[in-house]
Amino acid sequence: MPEYSDTQLRRMVQPDRVHKHLYTDPAIFDLEMERIFGRGWIYVGHESQVRKPGDFFATRMGTKPVLLTRHSDGRVYVIHNQCAHRGAQVVAEESGNAPEFRCCYHGWSYHTDGRIKNIPLRHAYPQRLDMSDPKLAMVQVPRVQSHRGFVFASLAATGPSLEQFLGHIATSLDDMIDRAPDGEIEIAGGVFKHRYNANWKVYLENLLDAAHPLFVHHSSIEASKVQDDTVTSDGTGEIAIRQMRQNGASYGFWESQVGIWAYPNGHAYIGDYHDDAKLVAAMNDPVFREYIAALEAKKGKAEAKRILELRRWNSNVYPNVSFMSQFQQFRVVHPLSVNSTVVYTYCFRLKGAPEQMFRNTVAFANVVNGTGSLVLTDDLETYDRLGNGLASGGTEWLEISRGAGTDLADAHDGRRGKNSTSEVYLRNMFEAWLGYMTGGESGLAAAAE
Amino acid sequence: MSLAMNVAAGASDTSFDLGELEAFLTQEAHLLDEARYEEWLSLFTADATYWVPSAVNQRDPYETVSLMYDDRRLLETRVRRLMQGVMHAQTPRSTAVRQVTNAALVERQAGGALVRSKFTMVEYRRNAQRIFAGTYLHRLVRQGGALKIASKRVNLVNCEAELEGLVVPF
Question: Among A339, A323, A341, A342, which Cα is nearest to A331's?
């Protein structure tokens, strides 16, 4: 039984501050797993990870292990990775291809859409063992929908559609795809799995936080500033150092040239850089110029221009994705406990783009998402400090008010900060949080209103 | 300096004695244990690479992400960062000790040698101790009479694990 009433939950989220228990109380975490991760649309995987029938990819919805599969009917399914017999985990690999899933314990086997296939010693069971019973299965997650290859699932049988849930943030997912000259993308280049000792929410918050780089990334900004650019590089160091220096941009840059937009259901993006010379994919970069030519050849000049002028940095699809369409980075947040989180990060390959472009994407991933990166390690330390600090007996209330009162209404039921240092994305996420947490079965719909 | 020049510089000397190679690896580990990173950097050639793959049997550092992959330019920046006064991820600092064993000369190359060894590294920081283990692959060359690292690959046994941040080099 929840320890928090709706009234108590509402009291913990105020326009300018939130209570620290949102980050520290295991009872809140359990409620979040039930009411957010247990009801809402959760990103599960990309269709390129399960191309052929029998392909599977193991992941989690909240703390629940699930499989994304491609069945012989050509459709994708999300099924609980658990045997209907004694409850054992059925698939132990992270990904692969299998004609069927068979439990290691007593050999119960399942079709790749989760339906039961065979039960050894079936004659010894009473009649009630009905092979057509949908519960006698690796149970299917009730709702699975794909937005142009991005697969989301919901553990609730009813609720708003995926497109209703995504709203305008779908355009950021579209941007990832539109940037491929051939109009197709695939996950490639491996995965980082980085772990930290703090709440899952702080990761989503930091990815839209324009005011943190100058402080958090001090060490890599300073170290990169004085790097001799004539020293040998195969391209890796060049990309990494350019990004580290970019993190050292002054507040003036973040306040005058970068914006932040927030939308219903907790989604938001930061971006709209205007100074391309400072970007990793700079317009004067020969590989990027080759890419632009490929894009123009396939899509025409006008469409290529439209695509390239959408300069979004990080986009968040609340509650478990933060991605960067411009540089093909995709991060999936997996909460483990109230103060333990792991993030899996992936790269997308743009079909039809020059080969070197994907190598640049990998080099960029190493510097922004790498577990041993000169940049990310200072973020991970900051998350751990949040975990440590919030355990203290100091302040009970956490500020979310920077820029409050200056937010501007925007199209698509959105709003934007006066500039990118506004904490409008925090206020927006907590409004969605409250909608999920107090809205009952239709929490998401309530949040959207 | 190009790879060809490296090979040419050492081409006159193809004598690599396992004892000398082991002593070199031991000294390298000692410099890292003592956090003498600038001296550690000086062991590398001007076009060296330092690589910690993210996947078992990873083919290359270009098509797949790496826990660490530095060309010489980035390695210099990594070392400079490690020497910074303010570095959150190393406040407080780690202490670490490395043991290098089982060294074997895998292959003599023109002017160089590929050396395989096994290592363990115990890292302590802020009340937590982590143990790393794996295989080192050093491509060593002789330049001006001294051994230098042309490339170092670190295959961690747990490279595919969910890991907290990695800051101290292996």
Answer: A323
The domain containing residue A59 runs over which residues? Answer: 42-154
Do residues B82 and B37 touch, judged by C-beta distance below 8 A? yes
Containing A292, the helix (H) or strand (E) segment is helix A286-299
Phi-psi region of A403 (alpha: psi -120 to 50; beta: other; left: phi over 0): left
Choosing among B1, B5, B62, which should be mutated to test the A contact, i.e. which has the most A CBs within 10 A? B62
| CB within 8 Å: B165 and A372 | yes
Over its C-alpha atoms, chain B yields an Rg (Å, rounded) of 16
CA of B19 vs chain A CAs: smallest distance (Å): 31
φ/ψ region of A154 (left if φ > 0, alpha if ψ in -120 to 50, else beta) reads beta
Whole-complex ipTM: 0.95
Number of domains, chain A: 2
Give helix then strand counts, H and E, for chain B: 4, 6
Residue A447 pLDDT: 45
- Per the CB < 8 Å rule, is A241 touching B67? no
Contact A393, A233 (CB under 8 A): no
**Cβ distance of B76 and A378 shorter than 8 Å:** no
Strand partners, B134: B119, B156
As a whole number of angstroms, the distance between CA A103 and CA A124 comes to 19
Q: List pLDDT tens digits, range A249-308.
A: 899 988 988 999 999 999 999 987 655 555 555 667 888 889 999 999 999 999 999 998
User: What pLDDT, on the 0 to 100 scale, is given for residue A277?
Assistant: 56
The length of chain A in residues reads 449
CATH code: domain of residue A351: 3.90.380.10
Give domain status of residue A215, yes or no: yes
Distances (CA, A) of B110 to A40, B114, B142, B152: 61, 11, 10, 17
Cβ-defined contact of A377 to B64 (cutoff 8 Å): no
Q: Which residue of B has its CA nearest to A377?
A: B165
Beta carbons of A323 and A330 less than 8 angstroms apart: yes
Q: Which residues of A touch B71 (CB under 8 A)?
A: 232-237
Please say whether the beta carbons of A342 and B163 come within 8 A: no
Most B CBs within 10 A among A381, A384, A388, hence the mutation to make, goes to A381
| Boundary (domain end) residue, out of A120, A154, A188 | A154
Q: What CATH number is attached to the domain comprising B119?
A: 3.10.450.50
What does the pLDDT read at residue A279?
56
In sequence order, the β-bridge partners of residue A46 are A150
Please tell me whether the peptide bond between B53 and the residue prior to it is cis, using omega within 30 degrees of 0.
Answer: no
Over residues A336-378, the pLDDT tens digits come to 999 999 999 999 999 999 999 999 999 999 999 999 999 999 9
- For testing the chain A interface, which of B73, B154, B159 should be mutated: the one with the most A CBs within 10 Å? B73
| pLDDT at B12 > cutoff 50 | no
Cβ distance of A374 and B81 shorter than 8 Å:
yes
| Entry pTM | 0.95
How many Å lie between the alpha carbon of B123 and the closest alpha carbon of chain A? 14
Q: Residue A228 class from Cβ within 10 Å (0-12 exposed, 13-18 middle, 19+ buried)?
A: exposed
Answer whether B51's CB lies under 8 Å from B68's CB: yes
